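ok so I'm stuck.
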Amino acid sequence: MMKETLLNIANRFQLKGEVKNVRPLGEGLINDT
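replied:
not stuck anymore, here's the structure
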């Protein structure tokens, strides 16, 4: 169930185009500072 839930959430984020913002978020914060 966990995998299915994660996949569903990932699909929703992909549709919203937020996946691109989520992945580089950690690196982006470090690079921006």
